[in-house]
Amino acid sequence: MHYSQRAETAEPSSPRIEIEDDAFIVGAELLGELLHVPASQIPILLREGAIRSVCERGIEDNEGEFRLTFFYRSRRARLSTDLTGQIIRGSVIDFGDRPLPDDLHRSGA
Description:
Strand content: 25-35%
Number of strands: 7
Distance between the termini: 19 Å
């Protein structure tokens, strides 16, 4: 599955990521859809540490963008946003029956 959307063509109802006090707020519905988890389970899995995340700030050609990466079981979901929280591109990879190796959970992987 691949999610891609350009900011200039985004509709007002398209998913957004809220940015508040230097924190990113991703809706449980969106995260659940990306990770194939019911939205009601997202807070529980986050508290348990079953869902991990990494946030990276863009530099050079990607200045003004952030990349948020979420890991759960064999899935890796990535969302890139602009400074307003508009999702400009994203992707999901499911590695199948094999869980993600720990080194894939680190920034830059």
